[in-house]
């Protein structure tokens, strides 16, 4: 794994992010950069702030202080409506439990983000079929999530997260609910597909085997960056866009 971010302009960057829940601080000044097409693994123990960081980067949560830039946009300053449109069009989000809609079939679940964004039904279903094929679950197109295995459901969930062809995919413990074999299959497919698509990925995980799919790793501890690539090394902390 590389220890430094790519030299290209980052697709996403954060400067000195601070976030708390009431009086409980979750992030205490986190800065990072995500390179184009890069898979960045964010690791750290439970409660270290990984999910909060992901939500700030994805524009779900506004940080108390600090900034998040996507391309040229300072998204941490944007309105909820602007961030919501950004999340629909440019970002994909994937959680531990794929959170498929149980009443809908696999193909309807995957088509949903396109339909919500105004695509015609025929085009949305065709795109959904393509993405189900890429994750080798097209045979389940008419199946509902309750009739799928955990691994199958998660592959459908990744297809749904990718159907809008996002610039950035945010994945929070994407294999956390799976056994190691299924987890490995989902990660192998996901990393192949995102590399083919050129998607940048923020991959939150506490599992070193999952983090190994990343190009680079940052470790959080107690709301702060604690190290890179397994080595605790404050000298690599990126502050204000420059390596300090
Ligand atoms: N909704 C909430 N209300 C209050 N405190 C919260 C909330 N969500 C998170 N926290 C606190 O913020 C801190 C960071 O939590 P966060 O979920 O970001 O960590 P995490 O590294 O993702 O943990 P895990 O691996 O267990 O999911 C923790 O101290 C946690 O208790």
UniProtKB/TrEMBL annotation:
SMART domains: AAA. Gene3D superfamilies: P-loop containing nucleotide triphosphate hydrolases. Residues 12-239 form the ABC transporter domain. It holds the Pfam family ABC_tran. Keywords: ATP-binding, Nucleotide-binding, Transport. It comes from the Bacteria. PROSITE patterns: ABC_TRANSPORTER_1, ABC_TRANSPORTER_2. InterPro entries: AAA+_ATPase, ABC_transporter-like_ATP-bd, ABC_transporter-like_CS, ABC_transpr_LolD-like, MacB-like_ATP-bd, P-loop_NTPase. One of its GO terms (cellular component) is plasma membrane. One of its GO terms (molecular function) is ATP binding. This is Putative ABC transport system ATP-binding protein.
